[in-house]
Every structure is written in structure tokens, then in C-alpha cells.
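Sample intake sheet
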Amino acid sequence: MTEFTKKGDSYSVYPTYQNYWIESKPYGHQIRIATESGTHTIDLKWPDRKRDDCGRVSNKWKEKLK
């Protein structure tokens, strides 16, 4: 088993995994995993970036300079 030391780290096993989807979101990415027992959702959020209306990623602090 992997040992995690940083706050927020986690490890999951999905033995009845069937399919997965990765979607780009304004805040980062979303991973959905379908299993026999249901769908599990993981939100991966950028702490200092965002996606604009055209889909390009930029640093939030650069927006404040404008």
C-alpha cells in the first residue's frame, strides 16, 4: 500500500470499475468513474488558475493586473 504524508492525499480502489470520463471545467478537471455500485466524482481544482470563455487556462493573479 502507498503511504501518503501530505494533507489531502488519498488512495481509492474501485474493483468493479466499468468506465471513466474526464471533463474540463472552469476550475480544473472532473473525473467520473462508473462502477457497479454507482458513479464516483473527483473534482481537481486549480488553486491559482482558471479557464476563460474560450477554454484557455490562465493564472488568476494575471487577471487582477488588467
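Comment: The longest helix spans residues 60-65. The beta strands are 17-25, 28-35, 38-45, 49-51, 57-59.
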